[in-house]
Every structure is written in structure tokens, then in C-alpha cells.
Design goal:
311 residues, alpha/beta, Rossmann fold, 2 domains, five-stranded parallel sheet, globular, EC 2.1.1.-, lipid biosynthesis
Length: 311
């Protein structure tokens, strides 16, 4: 997840939400997700040694949580490029790292230069060299069939990942298998609320826009996800829609009439007109990759879906 794009974790009173507030809120959320209500003493008293991040992406939350909770975390992801990026960022925690714009090469204080294409073995060796293999390890694998023995982890969490599972019950059962008995699994899931009416065409259209723009499969209802967890063998200790009692709507930055907000102006009709034409011009002269206009169209449709769905 890109922290700069995590508008849904921000809150503000006037609609003018600062970037610093978004980053701070996301950081707090990642910590909240890991140990709900946990102060430093509680974290130390309830220290867990081996934790699994299911569908870790490039490892942003993984690194934040590892440093905050003082745990050893294994990130599991089926995408080779994201795994490679995650290992590079883990190394960057130890070295003064710089890379070129397309991330094809990087270099650091140890005077090494590595091509990121196909370097999993080299980067893992570098992780081991600096000691990060114990805190930020990455494994390329399918979370429907994980390469771990039974009862391997003291805790497991997933952030916007298991929604991509073709069979949610089977996915949760696999997580149950690798989790030690009596330990906890925390998950943050894309879900449709009970307000969704599958027979309402407007609701169906909104759902389709969200799925298309966010590369999501069929989004499940909250009740379906909870039932899948139970069928997998878990006991649901706590569940909550964090947006339900938020003092400020999470979708506020997507409001289309924020003409006097620097961040919100881009979502106004005028702002979108400028953005579309800038993207068209940049793609035409080759400064933006081919397909940028189509991608922008998908993202704007997703923004509309999220805003209308939130309302």
C-alpha cells in the first residue's frame, strides 16, 4: 500500500486533509492492526516470536509492524517483483540506499550494485548479511498452499489480501493450519456492508466500479467473511467496521466539490479536465507510459465508486 494514497485512513475537520496527517494516521492504523490497545509494556509482555504477513505486497506494513512490535515477520506474496522490492526496502533500513528512477539498479554504502530483475537469491543473501532476515523475511508462495509446516507461527495477519482468494474458507483454513493452537489471526478485509442490496442496480454499478478500479474480485459481504472464518475453525473474538462510527467520513477526500482544497481540487470536474488533458499530453510526447490515459480513467471510476459507496 502506498502511504501517499491511503486517504481512507485520514481524518480531518474541514476537508483539507494534510499529507502528514494521512501518513500519521496510516502509521497508527498499522500498529493498531497488529496489537489492538497495545502499549509498550503490553507488547513486551505478549511478545510473539514468529509472525506471518499473508499477501505482504512490498512489505510496507510489515516493516512498520516489525519495528513497532519487536517481532520477527515473514512476508508471503506470490508476486516476484513485489517480493524483490520488499527485500530492497528491507535492506534500505540498514544502508543509505539510492536507486535510479526505474528501480532497475540500486547501490548502497557497501559499494554494491544490483540489478533488481531476477535477484531474489542475491538480495536474500544481503538481507542475511545485515541481519534483517530475522525480522523482515520474504517468501514467494501461494497463500492457498503455503510452504510452512503446521503450527509454525505465533500470530498471522492479512491486510487487504485474502479478498483475492478464490475460496475464502480454504484460504482461512490454510492460515489456521500454519497458526499455532490458541493464537490469533487478525485480518483487514474488503467487504460490502449490510446496506448493500444485490437487487439494486445502482448498488451493483457502484460495486462494479470499486472492483474494476481496485483490481478486486467479487467483493464479499461482511457476514460471508465472518462465516468463512468460523468454517475454517476460528472463533471470532472481535469484529468491527471501523468506518461506521468515524467522526469524519473516510471518503471525504473524494468529494467532487472541494474547489478550495489543493488536495480535493483534482476531484472536481475542472480538476479532472486538467488532469485528463495533462495525462493525454504527457503520454503523447512519451513522458508518460502508453496506457496512462486508460489507467487514469479506471482510477477515476474507482474514486467515484468509493465515494458513492461510502455515502
Amino acid at each position: 500500500m502506498s502511504k501517499a494514497e491511503a486517504f481512507d485512513f485520514a481524518s480531518g475537520l474541514t476537508g483539507g486533509i494534510r499529507k502528514e496527517d494521512v501518513l500519521s494516521t496510516l502509521e497508527r492504523y498499522e500498529k493498531y492492526h497488529t496489537c489492538y490497545g497495545g502499549e509498550e509494556k503490553d507488547r513486551k509482555d505478549n511478545y510473539t516470536d514468529m509472525v506471518l504477513d499473508v499477501g505482504c505486497g512490498i512489505g510496507g506494513p510489515l516493516r512498520e509492524i516489525a519495528q513497532f512490535s519487536m517481532t520477527s515477520i515473514t512476508g508471503l506474496n506470490i508476486h516476484e517483483y513485489q517480493i524483490t522490492r520488499g527485500k530492497v526496502h528491507a535492506c534500505a533500513l540498514q544502508f543509505n540506499v539510492s536507486w535510479d528512477d526505474d528501480h532497475s539498479h540500486w547501490c548502497c554504502q557497501c559499494s554494491c550494485e544490483i540489478n533488481l530483475r531476477g535477484v531474489s537469491v542475491i538480495l536474500q543473501a544481503l538481507n542475511r548479511r545485515v541481519g534483517l532476515d530475522k525480522t523482515c523475511n520474504f517468501v514467494k508462495a501461494d497463500f492457498m498452499k503455503m510452504p510452512f509446516p503446521d503450527n509454525s507461527f505465533d500470530a498471522v495477519y492479512a491486510i487487504e489480501a485474502t479478498c483475492h482468494a478464490p475460496d475464502l474458507v480454504a484460504c482461512y483454513k490454510e492460515i489456521y493450519r500454519v497458526l499455532k493452537p490458541g493464537q490469533c489471526f487478525a485480518v483487514y478485509e474488503w467487504c460490502m456492508t449490510d446496506s448493500f442490496d444485490p437487487h439494486n442496480q445502482e448498488h451493483q454499478n457502484i460495486k462494479a466500479e470499486i472492483e474494476l478500479g481496485n483490481a478486486l474480485p467479487d467483493i464479499r459481504l461482511i457476514g460471508q467473511c465472518l462465516e468463512a472464518v468460523k468454517q475454517a475453525g476460528f472463533e471470532v473474538i472481535w469484529d468491527k467496521d471501523l468506518a461506521a462510527d468515524s467522526p469524519v467520513p473516510w471518503y471525504l477526500p473524494l468529494e467532487k466539490n472541494q474547489y478550495f482544497s489543493a488536495m480535493g481540487f483534482r476531484n472536481t470536474p475542472v480538476g479532472r479536465f486538467i488532469l485528463r488533458n495533462m495525462t493525454k499530453g504527457l503520454e503523447y510526447i512519451g513522458l508518460a507510459p502508453k496506457g496512462s490515459q486508460r489507467l487514469l480513467h479506471l482510477l477515476l471510476k474507482a474514486a467515484d465508486g468509493l465515494y458513492d459507496g461510502g455515502r
